[in-house]
Amino acid sequence: MSVMHARRLAALSFLVAVAPVAAAQAQSLRVASPDGRNVVTLAIDRGMLTYAVARGPVQVVRPSRLGFRFRTEGVLGEGLRLVDSARTTRDTTFTLPWGEVARVHDRHAELRVVVEETRPPGRRFGVVVRAFDDGIAFRYELPAQPNLGDFEIIDELTEFVMAEDAKAWWIPANVPSPDRQEMLWSSGPVSKLDTVHTPLTMQMTTGTQVVIHEADLVDYAGMYLAGRSEGRTLRASLAKWKDGAAVKGRTPFVSPWRTIQLADRPEQLAPSLLTLKLNPPSRIADTRWIRPMKYNGIWWAMHVNTATWSSGPRHGATTANTKRHLDFAAANGLGGTLVEGWNVGWDGDWTKAGDKFSFTQAYPDYDLPGVAAHAKAKGLSLIVHNETSTFIENYERQLDSAFALYQRLGVTAIKTGYVGDTTSPGGHAHQSQYMVRHHRRVIETAARYGITVDMHEPIKDTGERRTWPNMLAREGARGQEFNAWGGEGGNPPEHETILFFTRMLAGPMDFTPGIFNLLLTRSGTGVARTPEDARPRTTLAKQLALYVVLYSPLQMAADLPENYEGQPAFRFIRDVAVDWDTTVVLHGRIGDDVVVARKAKGKDEWFLGAITDEEARTIEVPLSFLGGGSWVAETYADGPGADWRSNPLPVAITSRTVTRAVTLRIAMAPGGGQAIRFRRAR
Predict the structure, then answer these.
(1) How far is 413 from 428, CA to CA, in rounded Å?
(2) 318 in a domain, yes or no?
(3) Is 679 exposed, middle or buried (0-12, 13-18, 19+ CB in 10 A)?
(4) Measured distance CA(209)–CA(384) in Å, rounded
(5) pLDDT at residue 489, rounded to an integer
(6) In the prediction, which pLDDT does 523 show?
(7) Among residues 257, 277, 297, which one ends one of the domains?
(8) Is 472 within 8 Å of 508 (Cβ atoms)?
(9) Among 159, 392, 415, 596, which residue has the least CB neighbours within 10 Å?
């Protein structure tokens, strides 16, 4: 019996143990969070099971339908009666091997109900609701039963009937190239939504913040949210297999958790720990080999067209170039080097011929054992890139042989890639159950070989890093690379201030900050790109601040090594931590600005990052998060005349002594930011 199947059986033991109830029972049940503010009501309404959510006096979700539509078994969710219910509470704390915080407090109340069809075939299912102080979650449980064995879910009938037409921030999920989530964010009322990705962040007129997402996505389809013509109703829309099925399974079976994070202010949304509390504990007993780190790599050169992934005279992944990058990483306190384009398969149109990729055979000008030994001798991780072009079968055939090779060579980190909107062959959706199963196989296989994973063009993050902490970071949004070649001319200055309150609530993002050559001048030409061209639409100080604001246990010094030479501001990249004890959001307005402070893991050292959109802003920030005594604040601020559009490079580097009683005035230029390191005064 697999561990996953055993976990399902344990979760469903309550359902199969319940006997049919003859006596009438209450048809409405409530469960409240430990602080009493978040309340979920489950009810039978006209034969359908519904749920509703309130935060204090504020109705958040009105009674909303629950259930399924199967391919051959029809609808399960009508003509229901309540069979039984049970309640439990939990109050525990668990530690993370790495993260935005070191410890997570899991305190919740749980209500589990069982419902049954009143007419033949008399099928039953359960719904488990958990109410936390920071939100609520629910999931379905399908027990083993005579009238429901093997099944195919066509639709999940879950609805989110929003109590008001709240303002939402979204990216679409029904346009070309939707499933890699690499879109710019839009905002507007819920009633204007079509089909969108999660996390979906909403702001009610009462100030209540609402974020819909999911957790513990193991063997199920990824969930989108689809608007309906009625206005404020969103419904679960599942990514599909090519044959139209959403989920293929056999009872007993559990769904992912549907999560609704709740807060009074935007600052309270991060760090978002709800999904971590809904995933099982780590399956990796000894996690000491898992290393958060900063890294550089042979990557940005291809995006700015000074090198190629393919073989030839401008091939980037050569032995000599890799050793040069490794030497730079070692000299500057970085933990590793990423190499893209090292393996056979990049020549020609690799997006359509991903079955030609080999994950063990290098190009003739790249000595994989030699560079791996060079990295190991310097105490560095060689990050091996595995681009698949979503040719999944080709990759899975090579998983064990490739990972075994990497293990023999001392390679402990990979970066995967999935450029493509559907799988080939097969044509399954990028976020489908097929791909969910694949990604879980990659993560678990990597763990067996002592390898960490950085996933690009991924399925969404749903907190699985708690169970498999070798799953370090992923992309899953429009990152820095669009600033080199994006069709819209790069990411707008507000982009990162939106990411913090949307995509980043799902989990770590490998955004790849640290571009110093912001005008993207070619070496020797002196020709700079104009503001209308694709280039980073930030100041240099903002690039530094992103290391603190956009959390990841993997942070890239993304620019070319030569662009850091003679740059005093590079010291912040050398100094900044990537693993944290504590995170405090000091100020935040979605789409405008963010100020975050984080305490380095196991050190008496804090880092602060502040970013703004296209507007210049000055924000007063109390330093009450610091401990007692005196601290040295090493500040990297926008310099005189700095402006993302016309003058992005000036950085003012200063140092002063402060205490926790001080209030800092953080001034930021248009498209700018500020980064500060706080260390104990000596």
Answers:
(1) 28
(2) no
(3) middle
(4) 40
(5) 78
(6) 53
(7) 277
(8) yes
(9) 159
Report the CATH number that the domain containing residue 542 is assigned in CATH.
3.20.20.70
Question: Residue 299: inside a domain, yes or no?
Answer: no
Q: Which two tokens stand for residue 170?
A: 């979204």
> What are the tokens at 249?
């399974």
Amino acid at 385: H
Closest CA to 407 of 468, 378, 449, 444: 449
SS3 state at 441: helix
Output the average pLDDT for the chain: 94
Determine contact, residues 224/238, Cβ cutoff 8 Å: yes
Longest dimension (CA), the chain: 85
Distances 591 to 205, 206, 269, 663 between C-alpha atoms, Å: 17, 19, 14, 24
The residue segments making up the domain with residue 115 are 3-277
The structural domain count of the chain equals 2
> Tens digits of per-residue pLDDT, 311-366?
999 999 999 999 999 999 999 999 999 999 999 999 999 999 999 999 999 999 99
In 3-state terms, what secondary structure has residue 27? coil
Give the CA-trace dihedral at 544, 549, 551, 553, to 10 degrees: 30
CB contact at 8 A, 496 and 546: yes
Question: In angstroms, rounded to a whole number, what is the distance separating the alpha carbons of residues 336 and 325?
Answer: 9
Backbone angles phi, psi at 448, to 5 degrees: -65, -30
